[in-house]
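Task: sequence in, structure out. Protein: ATP-binding protein.
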Amino acid sequence: MIVWEGGRTERMCSSGVLDVREVRARVRKALCGCAGGFDLDDVGLMVCEIATNAVRHSASGRPGGGVCVTVLVSAGRLRVEIQDDGGSRGHPMIPAEGSAWDECGRGLLMVRELAGRWGTLRGEDGRHTVWFEVVR
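Result:
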């Protein structure tokens, strides 16, 4: 069982299109002082990829849309959960095939490679949560 020592959830939105850089910056700020030993560059990259998918494929990308971000920290593990605003037609997944020249489709592949564990959840309200965990 993992006992999370600290946690924070924040709704991030904009009157225009959600700024993914701002999501990354706020996650990094939330981790200041409590995330020693974690590769925050990798964490930031994964946050950007997941938030970008939310903006591209759900109502999070509409004016006034946003994401709900939860950051959890334990002695040796960090977990980030990003929930979109729903409205997507599909389910977040890694494409079966693709070319190195494809414009999109590699974000969750990077998350899979960088995270110790990751996954997706779909709420009854149609919102998707993509989460990842990294270990020290």
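The chain has one domain: 6-135.
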